[in-house]
Amino acid sequence: MENHAFKLPEGFLLGTATASTQVEGSCTTTNWYDWYRRGHIKDHSSPDNADQHWRLWREDVDLMASMGIQAARIGIEWARVEPARGEFDEQAYERYRQELSYMREKGIMPLLTLWHFSNPMWFEEKGAFLQEDAREIFREYAEKTIEEVGDLAESWVTINEPNVYAFNGYFMGAWPPGRKSFSRTVKVLDALADCHITAYQLIHAKYPDAKVGFAQHVRVFEPLRPGNLWHKACCAAVQWLFQDGIQKVFCTGRKAWPYRSRSAEGTYYDYLGMNYYSRSVISGIHDGVMAGTAKNDLHWEIYPDGIRAVAEKFFGRYQKEIWITENGTCDNQDAFRSRYIYEHLRKLLEAKAEVARYYHWSLMDNWEWLEGESARFGLVHVDYGTQKRTLNKSGKLYAEIIARQGVSEEMYERYVRGEAYHVE
Ligand code: BGC
Question: Which residues contact 28 (CB under 8 A, 6 or more apart)?
Answer without folding.
Answer: 48
